[in-house]
Amino acid sequence: MNRFVGISLMIAALVAVVPTAALGKGASEATIAGPGLDDPISLAGEGQYGGEALMHIAEEAGFFPAVFTRIPDPMREERPAGALGPKYTVTYVMPGPNNEEDRLLQDLYPYASPSPVSYVEPGQRFWTTEQAR
What is the mean pLDDT of the chain? Predict the structure, then answer.
């Protein structure tokens, strides 16, 4: 029984560490621009004051499965039917090797009917060899 508890604790520790490592692959900052905004909204990245907001927006907007492979894959192959409404663009700054910064664009349609829609153009390059799905 003790061995089972020890293995369970080790798995719990790994689960606690893995999400933190995965979040480290995210954006260092982002801006949101679109209709009705006088100036773009600036968002700090992970590890910075207020960085939780960027991570929450990226997660809710489907940034991670659009850029990184996820199983099961929640992405749709086709544009959803219905009116999309005004488009907002999020520009994510992705820190990469050799202090290079890449920018990935994501279109957000928060007023789409019947539910919000986001889109990341496939093939956007980042980290030298990677590209959005």
Answer: 82
